[in-house]
Amino acid sequence: MALPIIRKTYLLKLGDFVFEGDTAPFSKLSRSSDFRWKSLEIFGEAPRYQYLGPGEDRFTISGAYYPFHRGGMEPMERLREKAGMGEPHRLIYANEKVGENMGLWIILSIKETRTHFLPDGSPRKIEFQIEIKRYG
């Protein structure tokens, strides 16, 4: 008798960190892409522009989780450790292409807001915003 294959699904994975319900589910994903153009000054005419190629590509990942119910304080600490390693991490985005390899990315910043505190000082809710940039 063959056992069924169990596949765990996720929407976003940065290195070995998975953004999902048990860690840090995100509710907003913003992308910003730059494109480089050089202004060429022409005597007696309006400037013309030469396309130099793609520029920086950035994602901002925002969401909230409730550490009392899932994951505790560990998810943000794991991400901070990852950022402190000073290494790029592979980004996998499960969109309409299912599991698209977005290449290597670096963590630029992690912002978190803790609210709704318990008597011992533990937050009931943590909102986060993580900014990453494409590496090379």
Automatic annotation (TrEMBL):
It comes from Pseudobacteriovorax antillogorgiicola. InterPro entries: Myoviridae_GpU. This is Phage P2 GpU.
